[in-house]
Amino acid sequence: MQLSLLDVPNPEDAARIRVDELRRLLEQHNRLYYVLDSPEISDAEYDALFRELQRLEDQYPGLISLDTPTHRVGGSALDKFSSVTHRLPMLSLENATNDVEIREFDLRVKKYLGLPQEELIPYLCEPKMDGLAVELVYTDGLLSVASTRGDGITGEDVTENIRTIRSLPLRLSGGRIPRLLEVRGEVFLSLDAFRRINSEKEENGEAPFVNPRNAAAGSLRQLDPRITARRPLSVYCYAPGAADGADFPSQQEFFAAIAGWGLPVNPLVRPVAGIEAAVAFYEEMQQQRESLPYEIDGTVIKVDSFVIQRELGEKSRSPRWAVACKFPPRQAVTLVEDILHSVGRTGVITPVALLRPVEISGVTVSRATLHNWDEIALKDIRIGDTVVVERAGDVIPAVVRVLTEKRSGTEQPSLPPEHCPQCGSEVVRIADEVAVRCMGLACPPQFRESIMHFASRNAMDIEGLGEKFIEQLLSLGLVSSVADLYFLSRDDLMKFERMGEKLASNLLAAIENSKQRDLGRFIFALGIRHVGERTAKSLALAFGSLENLERATLEELVSIRDIGATVAQSIRTFFDNQGNIAVIRRMLEAGVTPAVEQKKIGGRFTGKCFVFTGALSRFTRDEARILVENEGGNAVGSVSKKTDYVVAGEDAGSKLAKARELGVTVLSEEDFLELLGREE
Length: 680
Ligand code: IVH
Known about the structure:
Layout: H1 11-35, H2 43-59, E1 83-85, E2 95-96, H3 99-113, E3 122-129, E4 132-139, E5 142-148, E6 154-156, H4 159-162, E7 180-189, H5 191-203, H6 212-220, H7 225-229, E8 233-244, H8 251-260, E9 270-273, H9 275-288, E10 296-303, H10 306-312, E11 322-326, E12 331-343, E13 348-360, E14 363-369, H11 373-379, E15 386-390, E16 398-402, E17 427-429, E18 436-438, H12 444-455, H13 467-475, H14 490-494, H15 501-513, H16 519-525, H17 533-543, H18 546-551, H19 554-558, H20 565-576, H21 578-589, E19 609-613, H22 621-630, E20 634-636, E21 645-648, H23 654-662, E22 665-667, H24 669-675
Parallel strand pairs: 2-11, 19-20, 19-21, 21-22
Antiparallel strand pairs: 1-6, 3-9, 3-10, 4-5, 4-7, 7-8, 10-11, 12-13, 12-15, 13-14, 13-18, 15-16, 17-18
Helix pairs in contact: 1-2, 3-9, 12-13, 16-17
This protein binds 2-(butylsulfanyl)adenosine.
2-(butylsulfanyl)adenosine binds at residues 91-93, 126, 128-129, 133, 186, 238-239, 300, 319, 322, 324.
């Protein structure tokens, strides 16, 4: 018998099949991790798939393609960006700054269309992301070009940088992929990522970014994509450009289609009927603004139907069918009354502007960080200057610029100190750093800051242990490391000023309670350089115990997603320090038991997947997620075949439709509470 050639498996063909499968799996798990926030495999399993793909591609370079996840981070830095001309111009939006102007927009739309005033136009309401507009071009489903808006006609080619955004598919998935799909969206940085980048910058003695938008812009316009890859940019898509092979009847259906192809869409977008509901959305978002994990600077209202959009057309620079409803600015003008020097946890001395108190969107601001003396010199900030101050998220306000035209000539420059303002030690300026540091090991403010950090809400959450008590602990010499907190007695506390029996026992109880915090919080509380909340959580998940983390090698550390060489080195340095180990041992002796947070097994919702949509009135979305997780379930952002329940509030839109289409059980808020056993 003769063997046909077809019967002999060609190793390259076998590899091709496996490579395709690995790419599909990696993209699917990227989406579960970065978009839906509900990973189904561990980092180690993800890495194993990734390495298998890398090995096959090394072996068969012919199999490398544009959509391979191993090439998200391009090789070398560019000299400059090349330019891209948009097929259709990228327009901008007209602004409304209050509800009156929003209603005027609605009236203009109806007047233009010749509709009666009482007509309820179907609108699509969206958060207005405070980032940068980009255009993504998918050719035959493959991300081929990504560009910035530029002047609206021509932008810069930032394809390599956009490819580093993990939540963005390199290849569209699902059915009926158009031959050409241009999608516009906004690239942004989450507040978490922004804080982490800035604290790293500050610790490295570099000039930090003023706000997340500037940080996103700086990251997107990086000529070296390897730097961009370390900045976890995100994107939400919000409008179509040119398309061939797809026709969307409305904004709502556009969102449903692109979400189906795997593109990220903001889960807060909401279809409404009539302008009053759109005004309500604007007001609701203004409330929610403070608790969102990213910055928004308003909402956008769009006429939902694309047929009506076309009928309305556009003016020279903006369409008649949409309006940007801006929130009040988070900037204000005030006076720099003095510049103080503040010593931080790591000894960095930061200049702080004492401002004439001014209100910015409901908060009185009286201080602003000036970051470092290079920044002061760059912006030429002097004592007595009139300045523009900006508050971004809950981040410490920053001085944006000086109004030099307001100078009288009496303004005084501020110079870096030669000695630590707190302990008198000599101050050093490390080569290549802009920061000046106090190297005094016994510098009290450094220690005070590290205890404050340890006790803070997102770390060990020791309620009541604030600045005043910490100050007294130090001045009474009661603590010389954070471990000493766990050996304080009632008698010790009673030595404090204004301390009563009740307060002392509350404080002791709070310290006792903190012994049970989970491992992620404990790692964060240790104050390891470069280890923020998110990194601490990843470390806890990856290593499972403090002992494992203490023993982790650099190699093991960098193999964890989002941990690079600098962070890994910093963790190793921390645990190689015997003094740090001794403090940790003492805490463990005192009964601190940092455990890995376990999902409840055997809860009512074990293994069940929930999606919450629409306006919820009985609980917030965060509360809902916690309720589900406490019962062992998962709450995710989008509806798929794996969804078990969709809980729909008022005005639920595309997700509800998708749930019905897929036959997923739909619950009202009351049904959900009943299922939870909460309804009386
Ligand atoms: S729609 C034809 N939707 O706001 C205009 N823009 O002020 C299409 N932006 O340049 C824009 N979030 O950079 C739209 N949900 C959203 C948005 C949004 C942020 C930005 C975008 C645009 C600017 C207009």
